[in-house]
UniProtKB/TrEMBL annotation:
Recorded GO MF terms: heme binding; heme transmembrane transporter activity
GO BP: heme export
Subcellular location, record wording: Membrane
Record-annotated Major facilitator superfamily (MFS) profile domain positions: 1-333
Organism placement in taxonomy: Eukaryota, Metazoa, Spiralia, Lophotrochozoa, Mollusca
Coiled-coil parts of chain: none
Keywords: Membrane, Receptor, Transmembrane, Transmembrane helix
Organism: Elysia marginata
Protein's recorded name: Feline leukemia virus subgroup C receptor-related protein 2
Length: 370
């Protein structure tokens, strides 16, 4: 469904002289993004075992971020600045044709090669989730999630962290140019640095979770480090040394993007056996809402006051989100479900040999009596 939406968008967007159609295609792309952002957690849970699922989720987030990095890198190359409208129009059309060809190829590959799920669940917890899903419906699942206090707090905290990241990313060019005039290229490179460092942060966070299983501690720690990164970015902008901004922006991206898979996995733990797709979808919805709030709010603060005020306000929001995260109970339901099933299987294995021995003793006694 997601790739169909994206493919349709790319084909519609290449039709010339149709601004209304262009906006319609952009709307389709935005709808597709809602589905795409929630894929990693669900896909990882369906296909990977308990010692791999967090790493798989982080790699899924890694894929999304690679796309963002390509978006920072390729368009300026494919569509260089020009005073000729005809030249710009032709360059844009080439870029959109490439996008349409790529998404079409991906759609064909998915239809031909991709399977919905493996023949057998990869973990005991996933087996229980599949069994529970056969007896439940989506609305009931949503109601249980809304009643889950820990998940509601996490949803708001996740929205604050990711929404502030969206706000900074959207306004990055304006923020950098307020302190460094005529540095448009470096502003783009700083954005690329944020994304690339975030890719590393996401993958390392997933590996760490698989090794330690410390979901709450990791989530809280990365949240607070995101706050530290935001403060460092805020108070180094006016040092007039752009290389320092590269470093602090990189640390900001490392922790804020590293938070994405950690938030997904923490949500999956405290909401089990609800579908990971549902919980991650609600987290992404919160992120989009807060992203709009932070983007509009920070822009208003920048115009009414200054960049420093806007960034400090964002840091204050991150502090609130960090405190909220620390209040979430470490209720690792998915881990406990896996342990309970393992205990049951162990008991069955222990009981079966004793029953067999008892049966053999009865046969021996019968033979002696005979």
């Amino acid at each position: 469904m997601q790739i169909v939406f994206l493919c349709k968008h790319c084909h519609l967007i290449i039709i010339p002289s149709r601004f209304g159609l262009l906006m319609f295609a952009q709307t389709i792309c935005a709808i597709a993004q809602v589905f795409v952002l929630g894929i990693p957690a669900r896909l990882a849970a369906v296909w990977f075992g308990p010692d791999e699922v967090s790493t798989a989720t982080s790699i899924g987030v890694f894929g999304n971020q690679v796309g963002v990095a390509v978006g920072f890198f390729l368009p300026p190359i494919l569509v260089p600045n020009s005073d000729s409208l005809d030249s710009l129009s032709g360059d844009f059309q080439v870029m959109f044709y490439l996008g349409a060809a790529l998404t079409t190829a991906l759609l064909i590959l998915i239809l031909l090669l991709f399977r919905d799920k493996p023949p057998h669940p990869p973990s005991r917890a996933q087996q229980l989730a599949v069994e529970a899903a056969t007896h439940e419906n989506y609305l009931q699942s949503l109601l249980r999630l809304v009643k889950n206090k820990g998940f509601v707090i996490l949803t708001v905290a996740y929205g604050i962290n990711t929404g502030s990241f969206y706000g900074i990313s959207t306004l990055l060019n304006a923020i950098i140019l307020r302190y460094f005039e005529n540095e448009e290229r470096n502003a783009g490179r700083i954005g690329l640095t944020i994304v690339l460092s975030g890719i590393a942060g996401a993958v390392l966070a997933g590996i760490w979770l698989d090794k330690t299983k410390k979901f709450k501690e990791t989530t809280t720690g990365i949240y607070l480090l995101s706050l530290v990164g935001a403060l460092a970015f805020t108070f180094t902008l006016d040092l007039d040394k752009i290389w320092i901004v590269f470093l602090t922006a990189g640390s900001l991206g490392f922790f804020m993007t590293g938070y994405l898979p950690v938030g997904f996995e923490f949500a999956a733990e405290i909401t089990f056996p609800e579908s990971e797709g549902t919980s991650s979808g609600l987290l992404n919805a919160s992120a989009q809402i807060f992203g709009i709030i932070f983007t509009l709010g920070m822009r208003a603060f920048m115009e009414e006051f200054n960049v420093l005020t806007a960034n400090i306000t964002m840091c204050g929001a991150l502090l609130v989100g960090g405190v909220m995260t620390s209040l979430i109970k470490a209720d690792y339901r998915r881990q406990e479900a896996g342990k309970e099933v393992a205990k049951c299987l162990q008991v069955d294995v222990e009981v079966t040999p004793s029953d067999s021995n008892h049966h053999e003793e009865q046969i021996d006694d019968t033979q002696v009596l005979a």
